Known about the structure:
There is one protein chain. The chain has 487 residues and is α+β, with helices and mostly antiparallel strands. It folds into 3 domains: 2-58 and 158-181, Ribosomal Protein S8, Chain: A, domain 1; 71-126, Arc Repressor Mutant, subunit A (Orthogonal Bundle); 217-478, BirA Bifunctional Protein, domain 2, CATH 3.30.930.10. 36% of the residues lie in helices and 22% in strands. It is built from 19 helices and 15 strands. Strands 7-10-11-15-14-13-12 form a 7-stranded mixed beta sheet, sandwiched between helices. A 3-stranded antiparallel beta sheet has the order 1-6-2. A 3-stranded antiparallel beta sheet has the order 3-5-4. Helix 4 (60-68) crosses helix 8, helix 6 packs across helix 7 and helix 13 runs antiparallel to helix 17. It is elongated and about 115 Å long. Phenylalanine (PHE) binds next to strand 14 and strand 15.
Amino acid sequence: MAEDAVLAFLQTNEQIVNSGDFADEQGFSHEETVNAIKSLRGTKHVDTQDIKKESWLLTDEGKTYAANGSPEFQLFTAIPPEGISRADLQKKLGDSVFKIGSQQAIKNKWVEVGKTQVSRKVEHVDDNVKSMLLKIDEGEVLKQEDIDALKRRKLISLQIWKGFSVKKGPNYAPKRKKPATDLTRENLSGDWKNLEFKEYNFTAKGAPVEGGHLHTLLKVKQQFQTIFRQMGFEEMPTNNYAESSFWNFDALFQPQQHPARDSHDTFFLREPSTTRTLPEDYVARVKLIHESGGYGSRGYGYDWKREEANKNLLRTHTTAVSSRMLYALAKKPFEPKKYYSIDRVFRNEAVDRTHLAEFHQVEGLICDRGLTLGDLQGVLHDFFSRLGMSKLRFKPAYNPYTEPSMEIFGYHEGFKKWVEVGNSGMFRPEMLLPMGLPEDVRVIAWGLSLERPTMILYGIDNIRDLFGHKVDLGLIKTNGICRIGLE
Length: 487
Ligand code: PHE
């Protein structure tokens, strides 16, 4: 072992002058010797000093010229005393030797190259380039200007050799004890006193964890949760995928003939197909506001049917939960609230690269007296800048339950373009007043999908790679813990 050889050598010698020579003498490779020296240096068994030697090596091109002569010399010797045509000469030498050779030979004033003929200008030439290359190959030192000339022609390249001179270090011993990495029961009964322990390597990478990885969506969900909590929001209970049409649609002032309430868009439940209980006095007020309005609204002017409201479905948005929460809030003396939810919703959609029949919504709402659209925009700026999007734009939109409504666009610094990031609005008085909330209470709210930002953040372009049975478990293990705020 090179390690033992180094320590043994230092026992009788002052120093190893050069690790390269030492390796040769002892029959080790220099690499192995250097590794042993570095390791011994780590435990202070030896001290080292760097040795750096620069030497010139022939490049592949340089090697061919050292063997066959420089192109200019080859060209010169290929020209007979009476001269030769360019075409014949080129054929004789090949394109590359002809091209480089004639350039250099003209520069050296060895030859004259006319339009068609090439002739010698001198009788005899020496191939200096070849002899310089041979000298370099022998390890001779050349004049700087010769080195420069060969370097410029890329015939030689600099090689840097690194090695060490080595002396005993403070912990020197003729043999290194293998340091213990563990304290065993046997050690405790006596020999622990004589053990040398391996030092901790605090920069070592830990072994990869084999279990307990969060799904990519859950990682982003956690980030959203942290942001909501930092902003003082409480989580709404979203543990009911099954919901009645009443809470999912009617309470949100969504008329019963709205296309979203069609089975083409919504999954209705077969068993149990209808809800058992609804708050009757509130249902009566919702019926009234749909049919003939109230509180300053004209309503929709249609015949509202209880059977439609009773139909059970898989909730199409988490706003169904928001409507339940606001109703519960209206039953008590009013208190301002900030609520959020992140959970699954279902829509009867054609599945493609960006759509599945189920996905997750992130929803936030604030209710307080006298809130304005400016408050909504301010909260959205706060929220999205915590996600790394500080430039926002708003576009008027329509939701049955909000007025005004705004689509939210954020400037994506990575893509250098505006991307749609969510939907928002102020809940309508037609929704809030029948619940019994005080008249001056306003509710501002917004929603977005969890999948879209996750796909953007993790560079996933097919939703089926993110969610469902085709997801690669390896990716779940290796995807970064957090991407939000990284640009
Ligand atoms: N429920 C809306 C949707 O499904 C999102 C939204 C929530 C819009 C709250 C406005 C206010 O897209």
